[in-house]
Amino acid sequence: MKYVIEKNSNQYNLMGGKGTALAKIGMAIDNIPEWFAVSSEGFNIQNKQIKDIARTEIVERLESFPENTYFAVRSSAANEDSKENSFAGQFDTFLYIKRDDVINKIKDVYMSAFSERIEAYRKENNVTEISIPSVIVQKMVNSEKAGVAFGANPVNSNIKETLVTAVYGLGSSLVDGIATADTYIVDNN
Hints:
The protein is an alpha+beta fold. About 25% of the residues lie in helices and about 25% in strands. The strands form three sheets. The protein has a five-stranded antiparallel beta sheet with strand order 1-2-7-5-6. A three-stranded antiparallel beta sheet has the order 8-9-10. A two-stranded antiparallel ribbon has the order 3-4. Strand 3 and strand 4 form a beta hairpin. The protein is globular. The relative contact order is 0.16.
């Protein structure tokens, strides 16, 4: 497949930041819910549509999941969560999406690159290039707990500390700032 990138691929340049992190973590642990990435190259920026061949590949890949599967559809931009710019929470994310709605939500994630929110972020951070994200399509799980881990402490920039924030339920409540998180700092010395 050209635009659908499997979780065990090493085509990190096509997966974006989150996809690359998921692929690398998947080398160490095996209980990550099933997922695949759709490359940003599957989106035609001129006509703002998913390319036909990408659409065909997505449909084929989705057929490998049971029909009643729900999905999380979220961005995985190359410059998302990077050292220079985080774009954290800027692109659209969709949870509990039915298989028949996944393609529309993939397009919505692509289109969120043109949103007022992203435009304001670009201006504020002097980012001139429009970056279309790749998209992660992942089997949705009913989580009891979820969290976000940072390889370096973003509060004090200490690269010898890992910061983990966790909440009950879905991680979206944490990312959206709705829930108050428990915070853990792990000393990497």
